[in-house]
User: Fold this.
Amino acid sequence: MKLTFSLTRSFALACAATAAFTLSGCDDRQFDTMLDTIRQGFKAFFDSVKPDALLLKGLTPGVSTLDQVREQMGKPETERVFDDGSRRLEYPRGPQGLKTWMVDFGPNGRLVAITQALTAENFAKIRVGMSEDEVRRLLGKPGQVAGYRLKKETVWSWKWLEGGVTPEAYFNVHFGPDGRVTTTSRSDVIRGR
Assistant:
């Protein structure tokens, strides 16, 4: 229901914006620029909700280029360029998505690997004392960030497919005032009735 509402709302807003621009009496160049902006907005929106099968379809390590991946997957949340010229693009799937794709490229600009970051194996790599940046590099953008002033901690949470009795859960990383990991925890996804 929530997805349908936001899809409908976004589509309605884009249509209203198009109509407003059309009726505003702008010249052809301004109108073309506005239409291009609207097209880019639609593409970004559809890339963000595209099923993983379509998002990753045909992307081949050693063959696909950085430009091909950007065209197919859209704008990444984060792009990191390393000293050797390799890079990593981060694609979290929705604000509370269950997957975050890390897309790695070699210095030659060719795809090396696409990996799902939100796994038990990656969570096990989180260690006390790691920085926020180190955690972000490993797990990507958290779905939730909560600050607890009395405890003097910040907690980042990622929803993921844990399996078991409740298939979805949250993996939480707790940071102290110095921005370093103090502990990790797990919590249930609370569903409304």
Observations:
- The chain has six helices and eight strands.
- Confidence is low (pLDDT under 50) at residues 1-7.
- Strands lie at 78-81, 87-92, 100-105, 111-116, 144-148, 153-161, 168-175, 181-188.
- The chain has three domains: 1-49, 51-116, 120-188.
